[in-house]
Amino acid sequence: MISTSCRLCASSKLRLIIDLNYHPLGDTFLPKEALNESETRYPLRVLQCEDCGHAFLQYVVPEGERYQKVDYSYTAGNSPVSVKHFGEMAAEIIADQKLGAGDLVVDIGGNDGTLLKAFKDQSGCNVLNVEPAGNIAKISQENGIETLHGFFDAKAAANIKGMGGAKAITGTNVFNHINDLPAFMKDVKDALTPDGVFVFEAPSLYELVKRLAFDTIYLEHVSFFGIKPLVKFFSTLGLHVHRIEASDYMGGSFRVYVKTTPAASTAAQDFIALEEAAGLYEAKTYEEFMTKVRKFRSDLMSQLYEIKAKGGKIVGIGAATKGNTLLNYCGIDNGLLECVTDSSPLKIGKYTPGSHLPIIPDADIPKDATHALILPWNIGNFLKDKLKHLNLEFIVPHMDGQA
Prior knowledge:
By secondary structure, the chain is α/β, with parallel strands linked by helices. 33% of the residues lie in helices and 23% in strands. It has a seven-stranded mixed β-sheet, with helices on both faces. The chain has a five-stranded parallel β-sheet with strand order 14-13-12-15-16. The longest helix has 27 residues, at 283-309. The relative contact order is 0.13.
């Protein structure tokens, strides 16, 4: 589906700001038998609304294709970094909302229930996961988390309202995946109690530009948020931004608290001032961004070719979605990398989309490997420390800011 109007304000005044060529779905890791089939690639391009400043994909792959056609391969509980992050997030929201027994917390796209487990353990509240991926919904249920298999929609909102409403609804790296944001927020509003809060975490467009994090752009991420267009969007729905926190998580994110009551905080205005000072809503910023991205590709490929020319053997570390954007944009395949390693049993034995690199356990890194390209660079320091005993020379893109 080609986007012809802004997803927040419906303006048709759009400009192309980022073009990363054609990519397969970045979060769809392939079983071996799929390697003999054709693989669809889509244009990975970002538009920006000239009226409100919102940035979003030009071509949007249908949600069912993204999350339900092939078994989803990511589980938050497999990552110590994510478990720690979600534990801290739950504690913060519990304190903010004074959550306790009898209150309901809903996590939209709650994956394997890691965040909800933290809510449940820390406050004794009731929890509900609304998860579209069938295999992940099953894992969540097995983890003791009540789980509704499906997309969050008007029907799900009505079910939650029938349960008395949610005092907190969360979405972590989910809000940026939504196709119809006005409809989604109407359903969120309907499902909340009058004093409830919607808390979402999403990658920050400001940090994406600042860190040259082009590889956080992939087909599953429909929107790339700045605070300025979000504040305007929420106000049209009778919603208000109460609190914003910047985080290094996922390579540069923010956590936003949205309520129906007016906000006294100036947090939104402070963030908007930073965005405007950085030229986040100016075309020239993205012309410079793309020039830097092309140089990044050239420099990285030269580095990898030089290593190979000197007899080095390179492995990729971490089968991350952002890594697939990097691999496919740069044209890195088995001519340069031997394999990609990961600790997730849902990924091991599969292949990376587009580049078709085999995914093996961390423990099976070849003994003669000399270099390692860390693909989830946002946890680069964690992975370097974990694998320091292998005496590999690490290559970590975008080293500024670790989480």
